Amino acid sequence: MDNSDSDSETIRTWPFAAARSTASDCSDLLTALLATNVLDEISDANDLDSVEEYIRMKGVVDNSIGRTQLGVAFWLYPSGLHGPYHDLEGGAVERHGTLITVEAGVDVNEFMSGLRSRLTKNGVY
After folding, report:
1. What are the tens digits of pLDDT across the range 24-82?
2. What is the top-level taxon of the source organism (predicted)?
3. Looking at residue 77, what DSSP letter applies?
4. Other CB atoms closer than 10 Å to residue 12's CB: what's the count?
């Protein structure tokens, strides 16, 4: 790739430079991760309070600075739908929820504010 144009951006397929939808570019990887059953599944019940508690526990948050010490990844699904998918009549499968990743060093309050503002309540986030 010719980088002589200072205004052009380098296109990287991995590692990602920006967040992407788990339902678009990475669907095969997402399916493989969900099949392993190694990701914890967290419901969005109680206005995401359980999500914040999970991040603070698994991310080993230093309360004096409010930042994660470890990265965290989990599947967030709408309350009442029980996990990442369910079988429909006729053999089809409906997927719901999203993969949430939190890097080490993230301010938990800022992260939760952003998460609350971005999530929708219509099945797949």
Report:
1. 666 777 777 777 878 888 887 767 889 999 999 999 999 999 999 999 999 888 777 66
2. Eukaryota
3. E
4. 9
Assigned token pair, 79: 């309350």
Is the sign of the CA dihedral 3, 8, 13, 16 positive or negative?
positive
Global pTM value: 0.69
pLDDT digits (tens, 9 = 90+) for 98-119: 888 899 999 999 999 988 887 7
Helix ranges (DSSP H) in the chain:
27-36, 49-58, 108-118
String of b and e for 89-108 (b: at least 16 CB within 10 Å)?
Answer: eeeeeebbbbbbebeeebeb
| Helix H or strand E encompassing 66 | none
Distance CA 98, CA 24 (A): 11
Distance between CA 72 and CA 104 in Å, rounded?
8
CB neighbourhood size of 67 (10 A): 19
